[in-house]
Amino acid sequence: MQLFWHRQDLRLHDNRGLAAAADAAEGEAVIPVFVFDDDVLAYGSDRRVAFMLEALAELRDAYRARGSDLLVRRGDPSGVLPDLALERDVDAVHWNADYSGLAQERDEAVADALSAAGVETHRHHDAVIHEPGDIRTNAGDPYQVYTYFWKKWRDRDKPDPFDAPGADSLAAVAGDDLPAIDALGFDEPDIDLPRAGHDAAAARLDRFCDADVYDYTDGREYPAREGTARVSQDLAYGTLGPREAYARTAEAMTGADDEGEREGVDEFQSQLAWREFYAQVLYFNPEVVSENYDDYEHPIPWRNDADEIAAWKAGETGYPIVDAGMRQLKREGYVHNRVRMVVASFLTKDLLTDWRVGYAHFREHLVDHDTANDNGGWQWAASTGTDAQPYFRIFNPQTQGERYDPDAAYIRDYVPELADVPAAKIHEWPELDAAERTDLAPGYPAPIVDHGERREAAIEAFETARGEE
Questions:
Q1: What is the DSSP string of 256-292?
Q2: pLDDT, tens digit, 9 for 90 and up, residues 358-378
Q3: 59 phi and psi, to 5 degrees?
Q4: pLDDT at site 468
Q5: Torsion on CA atoms 272, 278, 280, 283, rounded to nearest 10
Q6: What's the pLDDT band for 219 if we cut at 50, 70, 90?
Q7: Distance between CA 447 and CA 398 in Å, rounded?
Q8: Whole-angstrom Cα distance, residue 253 to residue 245?
């Protein structure tokens, strides 16, 4: 008998570890289990736990459709899994690796406990197509520059998606009820969540690959368009497998009519590679969750002004594109990728606020939070990460809004105080005098800082941290 421990891989399709467990069963059967670990739940949020519970319900239904079920336990996996293995006469336990420091420590503890109980353990690399360390520099080191990583990632052969296990390879077990969200210490989410589960994820990807992927190079930059796949939460929770995602884009590539469309597909595939690049960074440097990847000679003199941080969180900075992004986060648990970069730059550079403040706020509100991706993105914006934005390249929020939301459609959607303001005036908002702002939109705030002044102050602060002054 084989036991498969689900974690951030809540699917049957394209699940490397589950497929390996089914192959190893050799005529016996696989028992699937999910363990609610309080040490992991401590980093959860209402929105993400609710999405996870729905994904688990969909996973359980998929097992039941095959005559099996999902066992559900709560506790320390290093105690729960050995007990379950002994209870069910399990020969081996399989699971898919996760790459955070907490996950690696937990995996070691579980492996040690199972080994002590005489149970074999098998860890598989499933969340990424090419496991951490598989793509290295010619000197044998993990890549620190994405461009070179991407070139090798793109040229490597990609394995086919793994088949879902058949009914004959799954144990006919009686499963367990899923806990209510309040029993886990969380509240019902305050937003409508995207539908969870593999079928919903595959449908989103199919819609994207049928059309929008071909214009992705350009379309992904404009937040008012529906130009992105919106599968980030599916990849984060593993309701969609990375090999399946890549295979679907490879299929789309064969349907491209010209070089521009092929570039669109290639650009989306590069986003899959970014996920794996940041997963590799986290795997080899688990401390980056709370520490700068790139240490400066002196500490960065973060301002961390409480009033400015509060205005940023509330979407009341007086910079329309920034406020639209922060309100989208609050309303939907999602922010368009271009706008994520803008709001992160504004917090870390214009407000000179420690990136950890932004990372924690996003972790609380994003449905698609992924430790490696989000940490990599925040440290990129803060100029503290690997292959990060240079400290002197600071996004101008006015320019970003005018360039990527020229008609202010995105801004008006999330900042209704500006609904009747002409687009040109919205983009000029920080430069308008107080009387004109009051006349145009009395309910919307004046800018809390002067971007030009704060840009110069940020550059000076980073140069001081670098020991250049």
A1: --SHHHHHHHHHHHHHHHHHHHHHHHHHH-GGGGTS-
A2: 999 999 999 999 999 999 999
A3: -65, -45
A4: 82
A5: -130
A6: very high
A7: 11
A8: 13
- Reference 18, options 112, 106, 108, 122; nearest CA is 122
Sheet containing strand 30-36, strands side by side: 71-74, 30-36, 2-6, 92-96, 120-124
Q: At CA 227, angle to CA 224 and CA 230, rounded to 5?
A: 100
Q: How many helices and strands in the chain, by DSSP H and E?
A: 21, 5
Q: CA separation (Å) from 221 to 113, 236, 373, 403?
A: 48, 22, 18, 9
Quote the tokens at residue 248.
Answer: 């679907």
User: Do 146 and 387 contact (CB within 8 A), yes or no?
Assistant: yes
Cα 89-65-95 angle, rounded to 5 deg:
45
**AA letter at 292:** N
Closest to 429 measured CA to CA, from 330, 351, 324, 313: 324
Report yes or no: 404 and 306 within 8 Å, Cβ to Cβ: no
Q: How far is residue 404's CA from residue 406's CA, in Å, rounded to a whole number? A: 6
Structure tokens at 103: 């996950």
Q: What are the pLDDT digits (tens) for 266-302?
A: 999 999 999 999 999 999 999 999 999 998 999 999 9
- Which DSSP letter does residue 300 get? -
Cα distances (angstroms) measured from residue 127 to each of 7, 8, 111, 132: 11, 8, 19, 10
What separation in angstroms does the CA of 116 have from each of 85, 121, 124? Answer: 12, 11, 20
Please report the sign of the dihedral spanned by the C-alpha atoms of residue 338, residue 377, residue 361, residue 48.
positive
| Res. 142: pLDDT tops 90 | yes
pLDDT level of residue 469 (50, 70, 90 thresholds): low
Contacts of range 129-135, beta carbons closer than 8 Å, 24 or more positions apart: 129/153, 129/158, 129/159, 129/242, 129/243, 129/246, 129/272, 129/276, 130/156, 130/276, 131/97, 132/99, 132/279, 132/280, 132/283, 132/284, 133/280, 133/283, 133/284, 135/280
The model scores a pTM over 0.90? yes
Nearest to 389 by CA among 462, 281, 460: 462
Helices (H), 285-349: 306-314, 320-332, 337-345
Q: How far apart are CA 101 and CA 295, in angstroms?
A: 19
3-state secondary structure of 68: coil
Give the pLDDT confidence of 248-258 residue by residue, as tens digits: 999 999 999 99
DSSP letter at 350 equals: I
Q: Is 375 helix (H, G, I), strand (E, B) or coil?
A: helix
Torsion 196-197-199-202 (CA) sign: positive
